[in-house]
Write a structure and sequence with these properties.
Layout (H helix, E strand, L loop, with lengths): L10 E2 L2 H8 L3 H9 L7 E2 L2 E2 L1 E2 H9 L11 H23 L6 H29 L4 H25 L3
Antiparallel strand pairs: 1-4, 2-3
Helix pairs in contact: 1-2, 5-6
Length: 160
Amino acid sequence: MTERPIPPTRFAESRRELAAWFQVSVQTADNWVASGCPSLGTTGNRRRFDILAVCKWRYGGSASDPETLNARDEAAKLSRARRAEIELRTAARAGELIEAEVFRSELASALKTVAATVEDLPDRLERKAGLPTRYIDEVYRVCDELREDLYRRLTEGTNG
C-alpha cells in the first residue's frame, strides 16, 4: 500500500486536497462536510480544513499532530471502515437489512392494522361472542391501556 505524503502544513485548502489526503473521493469529502466535518470556513467557494481536527472527527479524539500520524495505521483504519461499509451493503442486498424509511413505512402499516383490530375488538366480542356489557367495559379499558402503552413505547424508542 502506498503511504500518503505527510502534508507540509496541517491544513487542506480545499475539499479536493482533503479528499486526496484521506484517499477518498471529493464526493465523500462533500458527504463528510454535510455530516458535520469540521472546517475553518470558506474563502470564495473553497472550504479550508484543519487536518488534525478532521482526523479527530473521523477517528475519534486520539488523533495526534498530522506530522506524526502513521499513514499506514490511518490507511488500515480507513480500510476497516470501508470493509464494514461493504459488509453492510452486501447484507442489505441479501435482504438481511432494510432501509430505515422502508422499516418505518412497514411498521406504520402494521401498527395501523393492530390499532384497527384493538379498536374493533370490544364490539366484536359483544356482537359475536355475546359477552355482557360489564365485561365489554373492561375490554375497552384494557384496549385503551394497550394503545397508550404502545404509543408511549414507540415514542420513547424513537426519541419523540
